[in-house]
Amino acid sequence: MQASTLKFVLIIFIFFSVFVSNDVFSMQAPDFKLEGQNKTIQLSRYKGKVVYVSFWASWCVPCRKSFGWMNKMQSRYGDEGLKIIAINLDESKSKAKKFLKQLPASFEIAFDPEGGTAKTYNIKIIPSSFIINQHGKIVHVSIGFQGNDGKKLETKIRQLIHQTNITRKLSRDDRHHREK
């Protein structure tokens, strides 16, 4: 009897880990205001855009892989409304700057050396990333970064950008129609 109970629990665990998505049911993204490379970065300034927020550190090997992907996404979708913000968690900015000399970023870099924003977002593993829709709601959470993660994340980002652009067009068309 114990073996069948254990088997049942194992089947349920496998089902949830394989078939249940890590999509979040539209939780409001906590705002943050952090020092950036060239300016202060505040999440709420990007309302109306799809935002990808990634927490990283210079010693993190998967973070290195994610940087190439984030550069590609910013280049591919930046003009369509994607904003990428990578939040560095190193205690020393010099470590982050050394990393960035090796892997330059074409997206926003923010610094959180005390980890306050990371605590607010409940970061336990890095890289951890959040896709935030145009209304400021977290719609997807990703922990870690492996080879095929990029394709899945790009699909979600592309869908959100498409939805955002349709909403904007409908809103413009509606305004134009009411003005006539």
List the main descriptive attributes of the protein structure presented here.
single chain; 180 residues; Glutaredoxin; eight-stranded mixed beta sheet; 45% helix; globular
Reconstruct the topology from this structure.
Layout: H1 2-19, E1 27-28, E2 33-36, E3 40-42, E4 50-56, H2 61-77, E5 82-88, H3 93-102, E6 108-111, H4 116-120, E7 128-132, E8 137-143, H5 149-179
Parallel strand pairs: 4-5, 5-6
Antiparallel strand pairs: 1-8, 2-3, 2-6, 4-7, 7-8
Could you describe the 3D structure shown?
With 180 residues, this protein is an alpha+beta fold. The protein has one domain: Glutaredoxin (3-Layer(aba) Sandwich), CATH 3.40.30. It has 5 helices and 8 strands, in the order αββββαβαβαββα. α2 runs parallel beside α5. The chain is globular and about 55 Å long.
Structural class: alpha+beta
Q: What general form does the structure show?
A: globular
Helix proportion range: 40-55%
CATH class: Alpha Beta
Summarize the structure.
By secondary structure, this protein is α+β, with helices and mostly antiparallel strands. It has helices at 2-19, 61-77, 93-102, 116-120, 149-179, and strands at residues 27-28, 33-36, 40-42, 50-56, 82-88, 108-111, 128-132, 137-143.
